[in-house]
Amino acid sequence: MSQPNELGFFKSLFDFKITSYISMRVMRVIYAIMVVLTIVAGVLLFIQGVFFDGFGYGSTYKIIAAIGVPIATLLYLIILRLWFEFTANFYRIGENTAKLVAAQDK
């Protein structure tokens, strides 16, 4: 949670009272890695499908790969982004709830 005295990453990692969270910081890195891996996989599948013999299926497979792989990659990136936004919103709800409780206590 965002706190005025938010700890650093490693201090938060070893905070056994769990008063400082690292979820949002780690989530950014995981999202970036997943986007890169998805794009690399999409490019490799596209190259394999278009420029190599698609398991003996010929030109039909190449046409399907040329159209289907970019669409599938884009859809996967959209779903990935939605999932990370959905998860991040839960953490933000928790932060906002803590702020509301702190404001009521004043």
Mean pLDDT: 85
Q: Compute the separation of the termini in Å.
A: 19 Å
- Biggest pleated-sheet summary: none
Return residue spans where pLDDT drops below 50 for at least 5 consecutive residues: 1-5
Helical segment count? 3
Helix content: over 70%
- What amount of the residues lies in strands? under 5%
Structural class designation: mainly alpha
Basic shape: elongated
What does this 3D model show about the protein?
By secondary structure, the chain is mainly α. Helix content is 76%, strand content 0%. The chain contains 3 helices and no strands. The longest helix is centred in the C-terminal third of the chain and has 47 residues, at 59-105.
In brief:
This protein has helices at residues 9-13, 23-51, 59-105. It has 106 residues and is an all-alpha fold. It has a domain at 27-91.
Keyphrases for this structure?
106 residues, mainly alpha
Layout of helices and strands:
Elements: H1 9-13, H2 23-51, H3 59-105
